[in-house]
Amino acid sequence: RQGDLLRLSWASYDGDTIRLRQGKTGARVSIPVGAPLRSVLDATPRRSPMILTNRAGHPWTADGFRSSWRKTAKRAGIAGLTFNDLRGTAVTRLRALGCTHAEIGAITGHRNAEITAIIEAHYAATDPKLAESAIKKLETRTNSPNRPPNRQGSTGSESGKA
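and the corresponding structure tokens:
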């Protein structure tokens, strides 16, 4: 979440992992840092106790960050994208890559009891790759040699049923 990132201090990063307590849920999250992010963090001057700072080297305010995000997105030609949308995008991509709900929850901080409902309601339902996968499974099943004999080649009108 944006607030968690804006409060992220250098003390939360040990070179391999970012550890934080989420402001909204209080959940503790340990996120392994991949090579691309590690190289950026390791090359970033530590001008402040906080990792994310504005041009002046001061920690971002929520309003200042939001304003800068909107301006940057507009310059990049990205309309209607909020910073919070990135979290949903990450969840959707992780799911599409085959991550389990528990793996996704370990990164996002969602409790396992909530993860399925949250992903299904907000993120996975909008993923076109999931729809494509479902149609392929349906086509495979309906073209199966195990199809009941009374339905093979039936359009529904032969039996008087739709």
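(Above: one complete record from the training split.) The domain at 1-77 is CATH 1.10.443.10 (hpI Integrase; Chain A).
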